Amino acid sequence: MSRFRPRALLIPAIAMLSFAGAGLVYAQLDGADRGIPPIDSTTNFEVLGVEVDVTADSAEKARLEGWRRAQAQGWKMLWAKTNNRPISQAPNLSESVLNSIVAGIVIEQEQVSPRRYIARLGVLFDRARTGEMLGVPGLARRSAPLLVIPVMRTGSTGYSFEFRNEWQRAWAHFRTANSPIDYVRTSGSGIDPLLLNLSQTRRRGRGWWRMILDQYGAADILVPEVDLRRAYPGGPAVAVFTARFGPDSAPIGRFALRVPNGASVPRMLEEGVRRLDALYIGALEAGLLRPDPSLVIIAPELPPAEEEIF
Question: Does pTM surpass 0.70?
Fold first, then answer.
């Protein structure tokens, strides 16, 4: 589940920043190149990578037929994945039933000609209605809320929410409904660049982390990293992805992806997010994503109530 919470400014943060001068604070917070609101996908199941190739009398008819086939194929892919069984065993649903449970179509890539439609699509299924057919609970969650701080490195430069970037966008657009990880994603606007930046991910002290996690309503931290290396502008690129967890940035897993040109980098980053999610799910199932007890703020005990005679 992904959650986005409105927050008030941290008083300790403002107190510390005030010594840096009003000009510095304004420079850090001002600018139109900050903030990518995360997609709220808690009410939908999502199936990506549905390939369609349709020929019809017109481009519009071909597109509609392609979307109709994508709905049927997406349902079978979702059923097979949920039940861990071959896609050939998935039950066939009528078009009217599919129309009632499909919440939307996501166009990943498409080519349209006067009589042909070729596309790679995603299908969104309403969780409440589809969950009953799949035999799964509508809003089941297993992990503690985990704050996501995506870190991107290009060359010798590293950053997180300091300014808007493709890695932040990939995480903001990731639909988390199918994941048991309770991701707490922030937009990266307002006070976020001051609190959730590259320097913060390197800080090991628990005191400051406790205040930040309490502010964002999370129990621990996830730091998904990508090291993007380009051969030359617009040319081949290699990205090394690392899944990290906790204030000590403990590594969970690592892998690399390669694309032939710069235009394919956004798609590579989206695939990287999906694979990192799989790594975090595996770590959760192995019991490695337990929240650190040292990050919990213990409320002071209340004094005993005084008895009054009246």
Answer: no
